[in-house]
Write a structure and sequence with these properties.
Radius of gyration: 19 Å
Order of helices and strands: HEHHEEEHHEHHHHEEEHHEEH
Structural class: mainly alpha
Number of strands: 10
CATH architecture: Alpha/alpha barrel
Shape: globular
């Protein structure tokens, strides 16, 4: 990697390293909470930065803390669980993170070492799939499965199953059951919308429901472009970024960064560059770190935090645009 190309992101990279604990865990901020999905997003940022050992340490934390059913708890504090909830997209995302790691470092031995962890996580996720193809969003120990499914979470799971299949094929493992689960999930998302948000208010007001099926490869370019154009005015604030929620005057850096990758994926590179370049104004001028978001009506940053996963999302978007690493193609193509 040409280090000069990534020099602009030196502060966010150093920040992730600073927040990472000795056991490999990466909380949101120093001594704050950790959730597995955002932990992996930050680890992927380290992979983009070429921090191989530190990224491996993050994945080893997941291996050490995986539950017997293949899942992880949804929230930890100093590596101790603070909830008994286990979310399926959180547990699936390790496959995406590890395939991204492999694309960059080509370390098949580490992938082999992590294979049992990946298999167990996939087994947990697919055990939560219904006959209709959707996947329950979460379960909770000592309680029933939480009966609903999410478009954003399920789209993320779809990409993770794709990455898991790629890992299985690379390492000579059967991917048949994973491919079947992925196919049924895609059919559910595309053709059975009544299976999503069936027991609570629709989440379509959140921008992630808009761009995640595009980001994760569920739509072809034609449908993706149509959906982007149809909903652009709902979520995009010119020269500021992407709203997290349609009706709120709040643009967020991580969502905007993910949208950037989705736009690159479907060929809207000019739009992606414009949004991405607008995000750097939400970077603290003193420490060079990105705030979570900006409430433009009040002219205030909110919440008052600079999470590691936001830094990770920015690095992934920068990689998709500027091709720092072979991992830049992670979301831009199908792998299985």
């Amino acid at each position: 990697m040409d280090s000069s190309k990534i020099e602009f992101y030196k502060r966010p990279i150093e920040y992730i390293l600073k927040v990472q604990n000795q056991d490999g865990s990466i909380p949101w901020e120093v001594n704050k909470k950790l959730d597995p999905w955002d932990h992996i997003e930050a680890a992927m940022g380290l992979s983009v930065a070429g921090k191989k050992e530190e990224a491996e340490s993050a994945f080893l934390w997941l291996k050490a803390n995986q539950l017997s059913d293949g899942s992880w708890y949804s929230e930890y504090l100093m590596s101790s669980p603070v909830t008994k909830r286990k979310e399926t997209n959180f547990s699936a995302y390790i496959a995406t993170g590890l395939w991204h790691y492999y694309l960059i470092f080509e370390d098949k031995n580490f992938l082999k070492f992590m294979l049992p962890t990946i298999i167990k996580s996939v087994n947990f996720v697919t055990s939560m799939q219904t006959e209709q193809g959707d996947i329950y969003w979460a379960s909770e120990e000592d309680k029933e499965i939480l009966d609903d499914s999410l478009i954003t979470g399920s789209s993320s799971i779809y990409k993770s199953l794709e990455c898991a299949s790629a890992i299985f094929n690379l390492l000579g493992e059967s991917s048949l059951q994973t491919d079947i689960a992925k196919k049924n999930l895609k059919n559910s998302i595309l053709n059975n919308p009544d299976r999503y948000d069936r027991n609570w208010e629709s989440k379509s007001r959140y921008s992630m429901d808009w761009y995640y099926p595009i980001l994760c490869g569920l739509y072809d370019d034609k449908k993706g472009i149509k959906d982007i154009e149809t909903n652009w005015s709902k979520f995009i604030v010119d020269d500021m970024g992407c709203r997290c929620v349609e009706e709120e005057p709040w643009v967020t850096v991580a969502e905007s960064s993910e949208l950037v990758v989705a736009l690159v994926k479907i060929g809207l590179r000019e739009e992606a560059l414009k949004i991405f370049n607008s995000l750097h104004q939400w970077r603290d001028k003193q420490d060079g770190l990105y705030w979570t978001g900006y409430v433009y009506k009040d002219k205030k940053f909110w919440p008052v935090e600079k999470p590691t996963w936001t830094a990770g999302a920015v690095l992934l978007a920068a990689d998709a645009l500027y091709e720092f690493t072979p991992g830049s193609e992670l979301f831009l193509r199908s792998w299985s």
